[in-house]
Design brief:
This protein is of the alpha+beta class. Helix content is 24%, strand content 23%. It has four domains: 182 residues, no CATH class; 153 residues, no CATH class; 126 residues, Beta Complex (paz domain); 93 residues, no CATH class. Keywords: RNA-mediated gene silencing. Belongs to the argonaute family. Ago subfamily. InterPro entries: Argonaute_N, PAZ_dom, PAZ_dom_sf, Piwi, RNaseH-like_sf, RNaseH_sf.
C-alpha cells in the first residue's frame, strides 16, 4: 500500500525509525501438547566465512532475440559449464541468477553455446481433406524428428557479493540486511540438485484416450448423443489432439463446423481439370465415394475442424480418437474438481514415504558446493505442537455447541434469530419427480422449518418445465421465466427462498438475513467489535516483502494517523497496529508422531515451526502453522505476526 496523499504536512513528516520483525517471547502454553513430524528438515551451516559471487544471466538466440521458453536455461548453462567453466561449481535458478563459489576469471561479455534441438516439426503430405476443407489441399500433419542444433548467446554480468555469515547473524538473534539474499542462494543450491534428479509430482486432469464422442458424453455427464450441447463441446475440444482411424494421422482440433456432415460442403479439385476447377461435395458424400465409408453415428453431428481459420479441414467425429497423455486445461466443473481432489489425495503413510524417498534420491551429502561450505541436511525433523480447544457456539435454544472432530452438529438445534418465509415458489426442471413428489417435498420442508423455528408459508405455485428438454440450458431457463412471469404477480420479483429440485441434489438456499449461531466469547470484550476498528488488507504479500510492509507501508499508515490527529487537535493516543500475514502458498505438511495412518487432529492444531529456526526463512519470528482441515495431510495456514500489539493472537485467529 503506497500513500497517494499530496498534503504538505504529510509529505514533510519525519522518517520513522526502522522497524524489525517481531521476535517471540516464548511459545504458547494453551492446549494439549502433541508430537509432530514435518517435511521441513534441519539445515546446519558450519562454515560462515564464505562469500557467494552473484552473476546475472541473459540468454539470447543467435539473432539477439531474448529466450522466453521455459526449461531452456538449465540446458544451455549446463552446456556452457562443459565448454567454458569445467572446473567451476555454481548454483543456477534456471532463469536470471547464477551464484559461484569463487569469482569467475576472464569472464567474457558473451559466450556462444550450441545445443542440440531435441525435436521439431516435420511436414509430410496427407490424404486427409485439407485447405478449404478440400481433400486435395496442402495442409500437413506434425511429426517429430531430430533437427539441427540451435545457437545461443549467454551474457554473464557480475552483480555483487553475498556473505554467508548473514545467516549466522540471524541464527544468533542479530539483524542482517543480507539475510534474504543468503537464504536465496542456499535455497537455489538445494533446488538445483532436486530439479535435475526429481520428477514433477503435481497433479492435473488428463484426457482419457478413445473416441471423441465418448469424451463429449463423459464431459457433459449425459448418455444420449442427441442431448449434446455443441457449444460446450466446441470449447472442450479446442486444441486437443486426435488421430484418425482410417489414415492413422494426427491433428489438433481448432473448432467445429457450423453444419452437420450431411450439409457441410467442401471444395473438391477435379482430377482431369486444369488445376483450378473445383466442385462442391458434402463431407458425407466425400467419405462415401473416396473412402467407401458410410458415416452412421456422426452423420448428423458437426465435423471436427483441424485446419486453419481461413482454410478449414473437416473430419467426421466417428473417425477420430483422442490421443493419450493430453492435459485438460479448460475450466473444471464441480464434479471434475471433486474427482481430481479424490484421485490426487494421499494418506499420511504414502506422503511420508514419498518424502523420505525424495530426500534419499536427492543425496545432498554428495553435493560439492554443500560439502565445501559445510552444509548438512538432517534426515528427519520432529517438533512439538498444541491442540487448542475449538470455540464454543451458542444456538437459539441457549445450549453450547461443542465441536466433534472439527465440526459442530446443529441437529435438533434452533437458530438464534429465525426469519420466516412468506412468498416463495418451486421450479422443477427434471422428469424424475412428479407433482405428488413435489408436494411431499414442500410438506416436509415446511415441517422441517417449523422444527427449527422458521415459519414457512405454503408456496404460491409449483412450476414444472414443459416437455422441451433437448433445448439449451439458457433457452430452458428463459422459457421457465416467461412461464413464471405470466402466472406470478409483478410484486413477486425476488423470492425469499429458491428451492431447486433434482433427483440427486436437493438444496435449499436461505437469504433471509437470520442468525444461526454466534461464538460464546462474542459477548466478551476481549474480542473488539468490527465497528470499532479499521482493517487494511493486502493481497499477495510474499515473505521477501515483510520488511517492506513494516518499514514503508505500515510507516505511511502511522504517519497518516499522526497527520489526522494533529489537524483535528485530537488528544487521544495513537491506535495500535497488528500486522498479520496468512499464507497458503507453501509446501508445509504435518504428520502425527508414531501414527502413520492418522492425520493431525481436526481441531485447531498449532505448531511454531519458524520458532525452531527451520522452514523458508531461518528467522526467529512469531510464526505458527494452524491446521483446521479434516482432509488427509492438509496444508496448514502459515500465519506470520510482523507487528503484534495484541495479546492471545493464536487463539483469536481461530475464534475469528
Amino acid at each position: 500500500m503506497e500513500s497517494s496523499s499530496s498534503k504538505d504536512g504529510l509529505n514533510k513528516s519525519p522518517i520513522l525509525q526502522r522497524l524489525t520483525i517481531s521476535r517471540p517471547h516464548g511459545s504458547g502454553t494453551k492446549g494439549n501438547q502433541i508430537r509432530l513430524h514435518t517435511n521441513h528438515f534441519k539445515v546446519s551451516v558450519h562454515s560462515t566465512d564464505v562469500i557467494f559471487y552473484h552473476y546475472n544471466v541473459n540468454l539470447k538466440y543467435e539473432d539477439d532475440k531474448p529466450v522466453q521458453s521455459k526449461g531452456v536455461g538449465r540446458t544451455v548453462i549446463d552446456k556452457l559449464q562443459d565448454i567454458y567453466l569445467a572446473n567451476v561449481n555454481f548454483a543456477y535458478d534456471g532463469e536470471k541468477n547464477l551464484f559461484t563459489m569463487c569469482a569467475l576469471q576472464n569472464v567474457k561479455d558473451e559466450f556462444i553455446v550450441v545445443v542440440e534441438d531435441g525435436s521439431s516439426a516435420k511436414t509430410t503430405r496427407s490424404r486427409i481433406p485439407g485447405g478449404n476443407g478440400s481433400p486435395e489441399g496442402s495442409d500437413t500433419k506434425r511429426m517429430k524428428r531430430p533437427m539441427p542444433c540451435k545457437t545461443y548467446k549467454v551474457e554473464l554480468k557480475s552483480v555483487g557479493k553475498i556473505p554467508l555469515s548473514a545467516i549466522d547473524k540471524v541464527m544468533r538473534g542479530q539483524e542482517s540486511d543480507d539475510c534474504q539474499e543468503a537464504l536465496q542462494v542456499l535455497e537455489i543450491i538445494l533446488r538445483q540438485k532436486s530439479a535435475k534428479q526429481l520428477n514433477d509430482v503435481s497433479t492435473t486432469m488428463i484426457v482419457e484416450p478413445g473416441p471423441v464422442i465418448n469424451f463429449i458424453l463423459s464431459n457433459q455427464y449425459i448418455k444420449d448423443p442427441c442431448r449434446i450441447d455443441w457449444g460446450k463441446a466446441k470449447r472442450a475440444l479446442r486444441n486437443l489432439r486426435i488421430k484418425t482411424t482410417h489414415t492413422n494421422s494426427e491433428f489438433k482440433i481448432s473448432s467445429l463446423s457450423e453444419k452437420s456432415c450431411y450439409e457441410q460442403k467442401l471444395p473438391l479439385k477435379q482430377r482431369n481439370g486444369n488445376g483450378s476447377d473445383f466442385v462442391e461435395i458434402t463431407v458425407y458424400d466425400y467419405y462415401l465415394k473416396h473412402w467407401e465409408i458410410r458415416l452412421q453415428d456422426s452423420a448428423n453431428f458437426p465435423c471436427l475442424d483441424v485446419g486453419k481459420p481461413k482454410r478449414p479441414t473437416y473430419l467426421p467425429i466417428e473417425l477420430c480418437h483422442l490421443v493419450s497423455l493430453q492435459r485438460y486445461t479448460k475450466a473444471l466443473t464441480a464434479l471434475q474438481r471433486s474427482s481430481l481432489v479424490q484421485s490426487s489425495r494421499k494418506n499420511p503413510r504414502e506422503r511420508k514415504s514419498d518424502l523420505s524417498g525424495a530426500l534419499q534420491r536427492s543425496n545432498y551429502s554428495s553435493d560439492d558446493m554443500l560439502k565445501k561450505y559445510g552444509i548438512s541436511i538432517a534426515s528427519e525433523f520432529a517438533l512439538d505442537g498444541r491442540v487448542l480447544q475449538a470455540p464454543k457456539l451458542k444456538a437459539g435454544d441457549g445450549q453450547d455447541l461443542i465441536a466433534r472432530d472439527g465440526r459442530w452438529n446443529f441437529m435438533n438445534r434452533k437458530p438464534i434469530e429465525a426469519k420466516g418465509v412468506d412468498t416463495w415458489a418451486v421450479v422443477n426442471f427434471t422428469t424424475k419427480w412428479n407433482l405428488r413428489d413435489l408436494q411431499d417435498l414442500v410438506r416436509r420442508l415446511i415441517n422441517c422449518g417449523g422444527n427449527k423455528g422458521i415459519i414457512i408459508s405454503p408456496p404460491q405455485s409449483i412450476f414444472e418445465e414443459r416437455l422441451q428438454r433437448n433445448a439449451s440450458a439458457a433457452s430452458r431457463v428463459d422459457d421457465m421465466l416467461e412461464q413464471i412471469g405470466k402466472k406470478i404477480e409483478r410484486s413477486f420479483v425476488n423470492p425469499q427462498l429458491s428451492c431447486c429440485v433434482f433427483f440427486q441434489i436437493r438444496t435449499v438456499t436461505f437469504m433471509l438475513g437470520g442468525l444461526n449461531s454466534f461464538l460464546e466469547i462474542e459477548r466478551n470484550q476481549a474480542i473488539p467489535s468490527v465497528e470499532g476498528s479499521n482493517h487494511y488488507l493486502w493481497d499477495g504479500v510474499s515473505e521477501g516483502q515483510f520488511n517492506q510492509v513494516l518499514n514503508i507501508e505500515l510507516a505511511q499508515i502511522i504517519e497518516a494517523c499522526k497527520f489526522i490527529k494533529k489537524n483535528k487537535n485530537d488528544n487521544t493516543c495513537l491506535p495500535k497496529f497488528t500486522v498479520i500475514v496468512a499464507q497458503k502458498n507453501h509446501h508445509t505438511r504435518l504428520f502425527r508422531d508414531g501414527n502413520d495412518t492418522a492425520n493431525v487432529p481436526a481441531e485447531q492444531c498449532l505448531t511454531p515451526i519458524t520458532n525452531q529456526r527451520v522452514s523458508g526463512g531461518l528467522e526467529e519470528r512469531q510464526d505458527f502453522r494452524r491446521c483446521l482441515d479434516r482432509q488427509l495431510t492438509p496444508r496448514p495456514i502459515m500465519i506470520s505476526l510482523l507487528e503484534p500489539q495484541s495479546p492471545c493472537l493464536q487463539c483469536k485467529t481461530g475464534e475469528l
